[in-house]
Amino acid sequence: MSTTRFVQSIVGLVAVSGLGYVLSFAKNLVIAGIFGAGKETDALFVTMGLPEVLFFAVNGAVYLSLVTLYNREMEAGRAAAAARLAGATVNLVFVGGAILGAASYMGAPYLVWVLAPGFPLETQELTVRLIRLTSFSFAFVGVWSTLTALANARERFFVPALIHNIPNAVIIGGLLVLSSSWGIGVAAGGYTVGYAVAVILLVTWIFWRREARLDFRAGLSPGVLYPVVALSVPFVAASLLNKLMITVSRFFASYLPEGSVAILTFAYVPVNFVHNVLTVSFLTVLFARLTVIAGRGEADRVGELVDRAARHIAILMIPAGVFLAVLAEPVIRLVFERGAFGAEATTEAAWTLMFYAPEMVALGWLSLFLRASFARGEVYLYLKAMVAAFLVNAGLGALLGPKLGVAGLALALVLATFVGCGLLYRWM
């Protein structure tokens, strides 16, 4: 990929992803306006933690491993082997997602007991219902992640990113039309329906345009899947620990006053939004380039690109973090304070956002360094870093949560993320 095309890919992906970030932001605004910060939103955000963990782990693992291996086969002229690898991976994530979804549906009461034992009984029962609605999405999320990885491996970014906006659009539409009669369950059900529609459209586009080679005849052949699984296992484990840091924070927040889980989640929305807009699209295109360069054995050039990208992230994220910290209350008031989300919730969320603000720098660096370690084949470094970060977050959360409330849990997460990205950079 030439420099011009690289920049064009980033600009195009930022443009279409920007729509997705706006829709994601709008979804949270609609939820906050209709339900505020109470038991319904507490239940929803604990529920959504499960598919979020699955999406992050599977999407990240499949994306990083499949892009690396698929490009390696294609660069070596083994197109048929690449097609078998892609088809077998789709088979694996669909079957695995269906099994996990069934387990989630049947084990929903036990999951609530583990994830939010501090919830009142009524909120626990609501969370069980929401978990069962989202459990049907697991197989669709896995397939969507795999197909997107295949398209990105061939440096096709625009259409998959555009299609990924569908789940949020379905959730927003459902909430606006049906929430008065169906309640918060519309958001959970909309997640499943949205990903089912996204998969259908993405499959249609890939086969119509022949954007990637797929051969499903390999089934679940261990010989074909072993390279993907071998690369994915450490990343899945590390990603689970990464996302479970937020789950642990919600665990501690379930023992705080009603609405604390919602406040913790709403305060993170501006941080996540800025991170997605300023770094994710850039890193998506950069990783595809890093895998090609690493596949050619140009290790020095990989290191140069990573160092340059780390400087760019710092230049973007440090001022953005300062901005959010200084203007936390106006930002939260502008974004969320309407409908059921009142002034008291604004004050609590703004205070929490001030502690969250440095997370943008750490999150950007962590996202960069994990991609660099995968491109180099150093897959276990990310796992080691996340083990340390998870332990730091759990320990600090238990210590700071009772003393500082939700803000203490935010601070624990930020410090743990800095520990993780610092260790990963040192070990690379």
Describe the structure.
The chain has 428 residues and is mainly α. The protein is built from 17 helices and no strands. The chain has helices spanning 3-35, 39-75, 79-106, 108-115, 121-134, 138-153, 158-163, 166-182, 185-209, 222-253, 260-295, 299-326, 328-336, 343-356, 359-375, 380-404, 406-427. The longest helix has 37 residues, at 39-75. The protein is globular and about 60 Å long. The relative contact order is 0.13.
Unreliable segments of 5+ consecutive residues: none
Q: What's the pLDDT, averaged over the residues?
A: 83
Element-by-element helix/strand order: HHHHHHHHHHHHHHHHH
Instruction: Give the overall shape.
Output: globular
User: Count the strands?
Assistant: 0
Structural class: mainly alpha
- How far apart the termini lie comes to 25 Å
Strand fraction: under 5%
Largest β sheet strand count, sense and barrel closure: none
Please work out how many helical segments DSSP would assign: 17
- Name the helicity range: over 70%
- Radius of gyration, in Å, reads 21 Å
